[in-house]
Write a structure and sequence with these properties.
The chain is an alpha/beta fold. It has helices at 54-62, 88-98, 101-129, 136-153, 159-175, 201-224, 242-248, 252-265, 286-301, 318-330, and strands at residues 6-10, 15-20, 23-28, 31-37, 41-47, 51-52, 66-70, 76-80, 274-276, 282-284, 303-305, 312-314. A hairpin with a 6-residue loop joins strand 11 and strand 12. The longest helix has 29 residues, at 101-129.
């Protein structure tokens, strides 16, 4: 089993990263502000970076350490990776499946079953934990609608039909997302999912969490030898990690959304942690990002029991485990891809 290593997040746009021996040296205006050993890192993510030395890029590629460049607002710009792991036969089979709508649908269907099941679980968990603070009947109706969506997936005939059900289910789920915000209601108001750019505090946090999660899924897929850019449900576009987006679907609600709700309901972030720009977009402050990332790292270390493997793993390993199960299915080692169905 792959070992969970650390991810280095660089949030200061003035930091420059270079290599000294087997250490990353972080400098600001030629002054060293930090030094981190390479051997315990699996990835580096920089936001609004000042630069990275060619020597460090080469060492990261050599050691399989992913290096991702994001804009200050969290939009993915570029990534550097080493040689592709795994065997060419696995990737060729992945490409064949991506060109076959029927075979693609078989996998994509399970991604979306996982997504809707976990969205339903988040709603059900809230009604169980906070029955006196929520409109339980309203949430139960939404949960039942998601159950009906799961039944509808069993009868679909194509990817477009699957995408339609997924869109409706997502709309139903997000229609009660504001109900799950139990604290700081004046500051954190959710009316609908918006992005590019996010227009409120909640959407700013969701977009940031999804960016981090898709990076974890990309790393997991690359580790097992799959191409994160060739998907089965999300269409292929230049620079779009379509398979990573596919894999992320079943983890959105149970991992990213619940994390955002925790940050709000435990009052870890508050009104002062957000900035509204002239164009109406909302971003987190530098300090808020650091706080968010600190708790995100802690979340990755939490140990859970994987529902399919029935074995203990860290939360941060779940994208890798799902990528591994997907690779096993593509190699015909499994009869079906098992989505992550959280309990």
């Amino acid at each position: 089993m792959k070992k969970l290593l650390n991810t280095l997040y660089i949030t200061n746009p003035d930091y420059y990263l270079s290599l000294d021996g087997l250490n990353i040296v972080v400098t600001e205006k030629n002054n060293e502000v930090g030094r981190i050993p390479l051997h315990n890192l699996e990835g580096i993510i920089t936001f609004g970076y000042a630069g990275v030395s060619p020597a460090l890029m080469g060492e990261c590629a050599k050691n399989g350490i992913s290096l991702s460049f994001l804009s200050y607002s969290g939009k993915f710009l570029a990534g550097i990776h080493g040689t592709i792991k795994g065997n060419v036969i696995l990737r060729k089979e992945q490409f064949k499946i991506s060109e076959d709508p029927i075979r693609s649908m078989r996998i994509a269907k399970n991604f979306i079953i996982g997504k809707i099941y976990n969205s339903k679980w988040v709603i059900e968990r809230a009604t169980r934990d906070h029955p006196l603070r929520l409109d339980v009947e309203k949430l139960k109706r939404k949960s039942q609608y998601l159950t009906n969506c799961l039944k509808m997936i069993e009868k679909i005939n194509g990817l477009d039909e699957l995408r339609g059900i997924e869109g409706v289910a997502a709309s139903v789920y997000f229609s009660v997302f504001d109900d799950l915000i139990l604290q700081q209601k004046e500051t954190f108001i959710f009316s609908n999912r918006n992005k590019r750019p996010p227009l409120d505090n909640v959407n700013a946090m969701l977009s940031f969490a999804y960016t981090l999660l898709v990076s974890m899924c990309s790393s997991g897929l690359e580790t097992v030898g799959l191409d994160p850019y060739v998907g089965f449900m999300h269409s292929d576009r230049p620079g779009r990690a379509s398979l990573a987006l596919d894999l992320m679907e079943e983890l959105r609600a149970v991992y990213a959304d619940r994390f955002v709700l925790t940050m709000i309901n435990k009052k870890i972030l508050n009104e002062s942690d957000f900035i509204e720009k002239e164009n109406g977009s909302v971003i987190m402050t530098d300090d808020a990002r650091k706080t968010f990332l600190k708790h995100w790292q802690n979340k990755k270390q939490e140990v859970i029991k994987h529902p399919f493997l029935d074995d203990k793993v860290e939360w941060g390993m779940v994208p890798y485990v799902q990528a591994l199960l997907l690779a096993r299915y593509i190699r015909d080692d499994l009869d079906e891809y098992p989505p992550f169905l959280w309990k």
